[in-house]
Amino acid sequence: MSGRTFITIEDPKDPRIAEFSQIRERDLTGRSGRFIAEGTVVLRMLAAAHRAARDFRAEKILLLKNRVDGVGDILAAFPEDIPVYIADAAVIDAIAGFHLHRGVLALGQRLSVAEPADLVGRLPETSLVLVGCGISNHDNVGSLFRNAAAFSADAVLLDETSCDPLYRKALRVSVGSVLATPYARGGSAEAMLSSLADAGFSIWALSPAGRTELSSIPAADRMALVVGTEGEGLPSEILTRFATARIAQSPQLDSLNVGTAAGIALYSMARAMGRIS
Amino acid sequence: MSGRTFITIEDPKDPRIAEFSQIRERDLTGRSGRFIAEGTVVLRMLAAAHRAARDFRAEKILLLKNRVDGVGDILAAFPEDIPVYIADAAVIDAIAGFHLHRGVLALGQRLSVAEPADLVGRLPETSLVLVGCGISNHDNVGSLFRNAAAFSADAVLLDETSCDPLYRKALRVSVGSVLATPYARGGSAEAMLSSLADAGFSIWALSPAGRTELSSIPAADRMALVVGTEGEGLPSEILTRFATARIAQSPQLDSLNVGTAAGIALYSMARAMGRIS
């Protein structure tokens, strides 16, 4: 950390850290492509994404004073021209608007976001893709990305009614996977699935009423798993047009969290494809 | 809903609904065995648990005025001597201390809680049990119960360092499964696992460094899955004493949420046991 200087913030209203103000109440993303990375794990992923210099860049970092030493190795992974602001607990809580016990925040910017059809066009010969339709809950979107990364999915596609995965909480729940797993968001689920079908993907829509139990899904070189909201599930147009899969479970309770359901299905599909062992 | 009377609350400080005051900031459970059930799904589970009259009873219900008609069938499942308080949105938000858009709350009481060894003694010949060690995160405990219920586990055992599953958020995330799946909490993980081993359980400790991949675990009549915290994992005494299992996943990211990991493992074990299909 030789050349790096730390800038001490004493006024919670200091304009240099305005983007971190009241972060629980608002989300930056959407307006400017800017987003808040929270916690050491996500900060580390942001450093890697910044170095890759493809889709994301880091703009500034704000740390609780007593966390600086603990994250020295992560800071060293950022170029020295990224400003690092430090503040004591009272100031940092006043900035954030709540007690921020982790004390590690960064501001990032999304440089580009792929169109679903373009991303599908760039996928490798052998691919596993997760498609989310109508996933508006930030935790669930984060959980989908975390599980997609855990099971080596090549991409996540979200329709226009799903929330932005760069929302602070989605990014945090994803443990930063949003910054590492290629994704696209936009357009209708039907359009996304059509481009996957055209690209030769074997498409499986997950539903409690699915016709094929998960473990009977035949492996294919290109596989896509489609998940919908917990309440409504996937729209009937998708369930009638594509093959449907279900996860065997208790008849008393047909209710898995969508992130968990996607995790179980991706595990099963990735194993069938021989991608994990 | 013939004989039932509704009591209108106009003062947020009305002592009759004091237990619902500022529920985000505090949790009742522990002190008195009382707990807050939130939302229609959990309310329905509380009605069933109350009728079973074994481990839980309902004490009172507080509803947003405009939700009364929508939950009529659930209210009909409670005896008429359970008071139902109603309030408008401003009053209910002032009571709860935050915007309670669901508008459905109930106060319940735990009548008894089993000791782990006693619960183990009552388990059926063929059993699947989930054991949590050091699960202090409320969402994760809720998620463990939800997945235990989805995959027909007979019981959940939690060591003394795990949090009470009746915490408001744990209960909500469990979609009320805490009120339906037998559980015990207390003592050390070692003591719980010893009583399971004595009862002939095949015990599998889940760990990223586990020796046996999940799908190679041999089925047994009595199986127990043991999960630990996300950060620390299970203590080494458990990992050396018992068989260990891992979930095949990307070598780049060895990180599943503990609830998701338990869901994947329970799915696999319940299938191996022929309990779900």
TrEMBL record, chains A, B:
GO biological process entries: methylation; RNA processing
Superkingdom of source: Bacteria
Keyword Methyltransferase: yes
Residue ranges annotated for the tRNA/rRNA methyltransferase SpoU type domain, each copy included: 128-267
GO molecular function: RNA binding; RNA methyltransferase activity
Pfam families: SpoU_methylase
UniProt KW keywords: Methyltransferase, Transferase
Protein name as annotated: RNA methyltransferase
Keyword Transferase: yes
